[in-house]
Design a protein that fits this description.
Chain lengths: 285, 223
């Protein structure tokens, strides 16, 4: 696979035509709604020129965004979710990194966690994802299906991308979409659509390991799109992204919120979300 | 097999095939070990025929260990391990499937190569059959026991040696019954089925217990 891709590289514009029809058939274009159908039309039309394709997809996406955001959003299927964190404390290496952190976040909202290095931003996200034990307090996602635990409703994106260098981007995303979304959800994007949204459609068949840092990050962001989970836990999601990619990802985040999702992001940089609340963690001791 | 586990198996299999190394490297290491033994003990055919099954078993054990250290470490480094914790699929099942894929990519080639290497050690047909049968049943136990060591050393840089130290003592029962069944196959005082049945029992016990132990180690170290 790696070698064939390298051989094809000079005419990479044609790569778009080679979107595996097998995948498209199996996963079913159009199950996510009109966007995919239009994206497919755009693919057919613009396949020769990947940059223009990416732009047109982003434009399509922006159009849909503006209509969705302006119109009242339909209530999500599984009721309004609400993330409640009460008096959370976390110990790391015997030191109390987080102490009495409380906040609540309702569906469709984003929370930006700020604070100096060592303030516990990553620790907070890992604790929310259930990867660190709590030393007190409680974390609950209210309003979701009762038999599903919080970590299983969350996407966690940290400094590592969680993708294998030896596999192609498509194979990586196909694995995570099947492993993380066990019940099909209409809000999940197809792999082709997710790659188009982050602007990686033209390198879908390339091994993950040969991508640049920014492209790797975009592939990792596409993982959030292929398997719908309501809560996104993002640790410095914008690392290595250029401005156009940041804008695209901001659109994707807005779209996620509009579909009843919640976002908790730790970052030093503005995410491009207008209506985000913020949580400042105390200074390092 | 449900879809997430099938997807995991496919992913592990592809990674093992593409990164290269593990499967082919294990077989080459196996071949090398078996090939140097006659230089050490001398080329006497009777002696080689007598100790052949033991040599094949020791070589298979070391070749299995050689390939095991990256079983969980690669996932820990690229962040996949954190994401396994977030899935509906229990970590124990993920460990089991990873072991199955790992065995298919590295253990099975050893079993297939064993009869050809056995010919170099002057083994008769029945002895070859015995070695292949015992390795087929016994190497999954080696992989599963090794998975505990791989999970326990997942955060240790260059933990391969430490893992071997942890795992080798635990594999002694497998070695004892594997070798005695293999030797019994070509005649001797011990019947073949007694040690072979115990070897099967050890593998089944490893199948039932090791995924839990390895997953517990991964959970504890993940914190």
């Amino acid at each position: 696979m790696a070698r064939t891709w390298a051989a094809e590289r000079p005419r990479k514009g044609l790569r778009c035509l080679a979107f595996p029809s097998r995948l498209r058939q199996r996963r079913g274009w159009g199950q996510g709604g009109a966007l995919e159908a239009r994206a497919e039309a755009a693919l057919a039309k613009d396949a020769i020129c990947p940059p223009r394709l990416a732009e047109s997809i982003a434009k399509l996406y922006a159009e849909r965004m503006s209509t969705d955001v302006l119109q009242p959003v339909q209530p999500p299927v599984d009721g309004a979710l609400r993330l409640c964190v009460d008096n959370l404390g976390v110990l790391r290496g015997g030191r109390r990194v987080l102490d009495r952190v409380s906040f609540s976040l309702s569906a469709g909202r984003a929370l930006i966690v700020t604070g100096p290095n060592g303030a516990g931003k990553s620790t907070l996200l890992r604790a929310l994802a259930g990867l660190l034990p709590r030393a007190g307090g409680s974390i609950a996602l209210e309003g979701g299906p009762p038999d599903v635990e919080l970590p299983q409703q969350a996407h966690y994106l940290a400094h590592n991308d969680g993708l294998k260098s030896a596999l192609t981007i498509e194979e990586n995303l196909d694995f995570w979409s099947r492993y993380l979304a066990q019940e099909p959800d209409a809000r999940s994007h197809t792999i082709d659509a997710a790659l188009a949204i982050v602007g990686l459609g033209h390198v879908a068949g390339a091994p993950f390991g040969v991508l640049s840092a920014g492209q790797k990050r975009r592939a990792a962001l596409a993982r959030l799109l292929v398997a719908f989970r309501p809560l996104w836990l993002l640790d410095e999601p914008l690392t290595a992204l250029d401005r156009a990619s940041r804008e695209k990802f901001a659109l994707a985040m807005k779209d996620h919120c509009a579909h009843g999702g919640l976002i908790v992001a730790a970052t030093h940089e503005p995410l491009g979300l207008d209506e985000a609340s913020s949580l400042a963690l105390g200074g390092a001791s | 097999m449900s879809s997430p586990l099938a997807a995991l198996f496919l992913r592990e299999w592809r990674v093992a095939r593409r990164i290269g190394g593990s499967g082919a490297m294990g077989v080459v290491f196996f071949l090398t070990l078996v090939a140097i033994v006659p230089f050490a003990v001398g080329p006497d055919p009777n002696l080689l025929a007598r100790i052949g099954p033991a040599i094949l078993w020791i070589a298979a054990l070391l070749a299995t260990l050689l390939c095991l250290d990256r079983l969980f470490q690669a996932d820990a480094e690229d962040g996949s391990l954190d994401l396994f914790h977030l899935s509906e699929t229990p970590l124990e099942l993920a460990v089991l499937v990873k072991c199955a894929a790992h065995w298919a990519a590295t253990g099975l080639p050893l079993v297939i190569a064993a009869p050809f290497l056995g010919l170099m050690l002057q083994q008769e047909a029945m002895a070859l059959l015995g070695v292949v049968a015992t390795l087929l049943v016994g190497t999954p136990a080696l992989t599963l026991i090794g998975a505990i060591g791989a999970a326990a050393t997942v955060t240790v840089r260059r933990g391969g040696l430490l893992m071997a130290l942890l795992v080798l003592p635990l594999t002694i029962p497998v070695l004892i019954f594997g070798v005695s069944a293999a030797e019994a196959a070509s005649g001797g005082t011990v019947p073949f089925y007694a040690p072979f049945a115990i070897l099967c029992a050890i593998t089944l016990a490893a199948l039932a217990l090791c995924p839990f132990a390895a997953a517990a180690a991964l959970r504890y170290l993940g914190e």
